[in-house]
Amino acid sequence: MSLLTPTIRPSVVARLNPVAKLAVALIVSCALLLSIDWVSAGVALLLECLLLLWCGLSARQFWLRTAPVWIAAPMASITTILYGEDSGALLWQFGFISVTEGSAQLGLAIGLRVLAIGLPGIVLLATTDPTDLADGLAQVLRLPARFVLGGLAGLRLVGMFIEDWHSLTLARRARGVGDGGGVRGAARRFFGPAFSLLVISVRRGSKLATAMEARGFGSDAPRTWARPSRVRAPDAILVGIGLGIAGIAIGVAVWAETWSFILA
Asked: What is the mean pLDDT of each run of 10 residues along the chain (264 residues)?
């Protein structure tokens, strides 16, 4: 089974239209990108965490899929705190590195924004079947069928690439290739399978493109869809919740006088 179509517990979020999920992610992301302050990001993250309880993912699935975000957020925050623009009182200094009140607040805001934007996006993607997403893009948003089907085919291959990487790693280990220690051994263990996977990907993509073209997927004729995709009342409610999260986050930041429009 593909890692992009995980086995999840039945949930309300999993049954919603993927277009509605995409709209919510875009609404929240755009609202948080209008300003860089920690209040709006913190409020949005708090509200999102309350809603993620109903996403249908188990605790293990949630932490595994969101692990890159939890790693990236503190790294972005620490980097901004140490090397961000200095403003306000000086809190700590070592050589050319200085931490001020302004850089600390900016680092906190960046870290919270990474979490507030990344977590819901990953969770909504994990609870969405790629075929349902393609149906929604083609039938609801009216995107070109050729573009949608090509994207769906590519998305389906990502899970196969992960399996290929695992198989290549085991095969090289069985042959005793790249078992050396140190930086050189680690480089060989990474770049060897990476090059092999690149070759496999190009060959597989070419064969898939030829097969899809031979079966008429590249035709400009009107296409029918096996599964209808419609926007229903629960989908509209989800979009309303996304608008509410964005509005509350901005409203609280304006009330706390921390809102600072980035284009002002």
From this structure: 45 82 91 89 91 80 89 91 79 77 86 92 85 88 85 81 84 72 72 85 86 78 82 91 93 90 66
Query: CA 246, CA 31: separation in Å to the nearest integer?
Result: 6
C-alpha span between 128 and 174 (Å, rounded): 37
Q: Which of 235, 232, 243, 229 has the alpha carbon at shortest distance from 21?
A: 235
Burial of 20 (0-12, 13-18, 19+ CB in 10 A): buried
Measured CA to CA, the distance from residue 3 to residue 112 in angstroms comes to: 27
Q: What is the Cα–Cα distance from 210 to 215, expressed in whole angstroms?
A: 9
Pull the structure tokens for residue 169. 């790693």
- Distance in angstroms (rounded) separating the CA atoms of residues 104 and 99: 7
Give the pLDDT confidence of 181-216 residue by residue, as tens digits. Answer: 667 767 777 887 888 888 888 888 888 888 888 877
Token couple for 34: 């209008």
Rounded Cα distance, 235 and 18, in Å: 9
**The predicted structure's pLDDT at residue 5:** 45
| Residue type at position 146 | R
